[in-house]
Amino acid sequence: MKKISVSKIQLIALLTGLAVALAFYFINPFHLSGKAPATLAVAVLMIIWWISEALPLPVTALLPLILFPVLDIATPKETAAPYANPIIFLFMGGFMIGLAIEKWNLHRRIALNIVRLTGTSGNRIILGFIISTGLLSMWLSNTATTMMMFPIAVSVIHVMKERHNGEGNFENFSLVLMLVIAYAANLGGIATIIGTPPNVAFVGYIEKTYDYNIGFLNWVKIAAPIAILLLAILYWVMTRLLFPNRIRSSVATRQLIHDELVKLGPISPEEKRVLIIFIATALLWITKDLINTTGLIQLDDTIIAMIGALALFICPASRNNPLSRNILEWGDTQKMAWGILILFGGGISLAGALENAGLINALGEWMAGFAGGGLLLVFVITLVSLFLGELMSNIAQVIVFAPVVCGLADALKINPLTLGIPMTLAASCAGMFPMATPPNAIVFSSGYIKLSKMTRAGFVMNIIAVVLITLFSWYLLPLILGIK
After folding, report:
1. How far is CA 334 from the centre of its chain?
2. What is the pTM for the complete model shown?
3. CA angle 332, 333, 339 (to 5 degrees)
4. Mean pLDDT across the stretch 144-165?
5. How many other CB atoms sit within 10 Å of the CB of residue 306?
6. Are 129 and 231 in contact (CB under 8 A)?
7. CA-closest candidate to residue 426, choices 396, 391, 388, 459
8. In this structure, which of 80, 208, 255, 423 has its CB flanked by the most CB atoms within 10 Å?
9. Mapped to the 3 state alphabet, what secondary structure does the chain carry?
10. What tens digit of pLDDT does each residue of 345-357 get?
11. How far is C-alpha 151 from the chain's CA centre?
12. Angle between helices 170-189 and 122-137 (to 10 degrees)
């Protein structure tokens, strides 16, 4: 039996995407009007090509620049604007910090010390990264947390690869370590109001619309148990169910780690300067809200990331170093994952078009059809919110969906928090696609993750998150907040 060549599989995927998209456009099964049929058709085409990898992911992400103006969905200017969204420059700054850490071998020093502390078995290392990433993400933005942990994880993979003797599954270890950084950052972020932007957006909406302050402690009581449970389940699902690695700890590995640390010698001036800029950037991310209250300056994550990146190009290397004049030089950016920046820009552009075409509001009206059953309604809202988060920015999703969901709650004479909180929590749990959240996009740039495996792992965690958030919101939320 002949094997189908890669080129034929690619051609089948391309034609399948086109055929399904054209069917949605001409048949219009949902009886949409205006720009909605064309927008939905483009969304279907992009999703099929992304999932099947018919084209490189960043190439598919460029489709809106062609199809939106041609189909009169948006002007070229409106379509191109999201590709320069501030989040893109946040990525760029974070990637440049990661490049500097890698260039001067600081990542190797940090990684060797982490492996020395957590233990050298595959599962112990993964557990250490889940705990540290999850805890950090409760207080930092999930994006900033991922940017800090990403270069360290990459270097841990390099160290483990050097000593790998064929025992266990190294490919699964690399895949899981990358995935759990993104997932732990997303899940840890839901535990506090400041952990992820959608939480802030929803709390602000409730306070403005209903003059009700949820309160930091109340939010922690609701969301922290969910986050902790999901992090524990994440460890079990990744290391036991989906991608077991079976890499054991060994005396030889511990000795190798010790020897490698000795070889590195004392920390170099360049490493110290990169570390100072890295820590300063992290401290700015942590304290930016406090700084902004002074009124002297207004910072956000993007500005801070670019300050850190610019500092790396300004800061000189030591005089004794003949290879580089500054900590970073422009030639170093050849190694940067430029495709991820385009990928995320395409995702934001598509999400904006879906919203402008009224497809988001149509989803809200569809959900109203489940108003008859209380628990079923919470489940549907959580399910739709989480899987919608795979296609659009979670902060944009909460901003758009909060009035829809809370208006639905008012019409049914139930507390808006009963529907709004699960909708908000679910928006941050998407894990199937790189463009779903910034952490997903960052780890996907590593090259250790195949989209099919990310989709598989993300789907399993999505279903678990939907069930857990639904049950917590329906049964415990009224007890914690004293609402009906």
Report:
1. 24
2. 0.71
3. 150
4. 78
5. 18
6. no
7. 388
8. 423
9. CCCCCHHHHHHHHHHHHHHHHHHHHHHCCCCCCCCHHHHHHHHHHHHHHHHHCCCCHHHHCCHHHHHHHHCCCCCHHHHHHHHHCHHHHHHHHHHHHHHHHHHCCHHHHHHHHHHHHHCCCHHHHHHHHHHHHHHHHCCCCHHHHHHHHHHHHHHHHHHHHHHCCCCCCHHHHHHHHHHHHHHHHHHHHCCCHHHCHHHHHHHHHHHHHHCCCCCHHHHHHHHHHHHHHHHHHHHHHHHHHHCCCCCCCCHHHHHHHHHHHHHHCCCCHHHHHHHHHHHHHHHHHHHHHHHHHCCCCCCCHHHHHHHHHHHHHHCECCCCCCCCCECCCHHHHHHCCHHHHHHHHHHHHHHHHHHHCCHHHHHHHHHHHHCCCHHHHHHHHHHHHHHHCCCCCHHHHHHHHHHHHHHHHHHCCCCHHHHHHHHHHHHCCCCCCCCCCHHHHHHHCCCCCCHHHHHHHHHHHHHHHHHHHHHHHHHHHHHHHCCC
10. 887 788 778 878 8
11. 16
12. 20
Q: What's the pLDDT score for residue 1?
A: 44
Q: C-alpha angle 228/229/235, rounded to 5°?
A: 95
Length of the chain: 484
Q: Where do the structural domains in the chain lie, given as residue ranges?
A: 1-84, 88-203+213-335
Tokens of 9: 């599989």
Is residue 282 left, alpha or beta, with left meaning phi > 0 and alpha meaning psi from -120 to 50? alpha
Select from 201, 209, 190, 186 the least CA-distant residue to 401. 201
Q: Would you place residue 457 in the very low, low, confident or very high pLDDT band (cuts 50, 70, 90)?
A: very high
How big is the chain by its Cα radius of gyration, in Å? 23
User: Which pair of tokens denotes residue 264?
Assistant: 């590195």
Q: Is the pLDDT of residue 37 over 80?
A: yes
Q: Which amino acid is at 55?
A: L
- Torsional class of 424: left (φ above 0), alpha (ψ -120 to 50), beta (otherwise): alpha
Q: Which residue has the tokens 């540290």?
A: 132
Contact 468, 237 (CB under 8 A): no
